[in-house]
């Protein structure tokens, strides 16, 4: 279950979070700054778990749903105006 969540559902934003987190992780080791490490951990956590908005999952990208089987038929009704009848 956990591995499936990590491996499935990658999109552009999730990849971007991973790249930003990796960039800040490299910067953390090069500059020895703790704040860069916190930012790296934040973005890497979001990328790995596919969460957003500080982990509340409120901004997670939903799975795409394909409802092509449930197409509704549209009923057309012809409406005539009184003005057309008088001419």
Runs in which pLDDT lies below 50 for 5 or more consecutive residues are: none
Number of helices: 4
Radius of gyration: 25 Å
Please estimate the helix content.
40-55%
Work out the strand percent: under 5%
Average of the residue pLDDT scores: 79
The main sheet comes to: none
Number of DSSP E strands: 0
Sheet/helix structural class: mainly alpha
Number of domains: 1
Distance between the termini: 71 Å
The quaternary state of the protein chains shown equals: single chain
SSE ordering: HHHH
3D shape:
elongated
Characterize the structure shown.
With 87 residues, the protein is mainly α. It has one domain. It is 54% helix and 0% strand. It has helices spanning 2-7, 12-31, 34-49, 82-86. Helix 2 packs antiparallel against helix 3 (34-49). The mean pLDDT is 79.
At a glance:
With 87 residues, the chain is mostly helical.
Attribute tags:
87 residues, mainly alpha, single chain
Write the layout of secondary structure elements.
Layout lengths: L1 H6 L4 H20 L2 H16 L32 H5 L1
Helix pairs in contact: 2-3
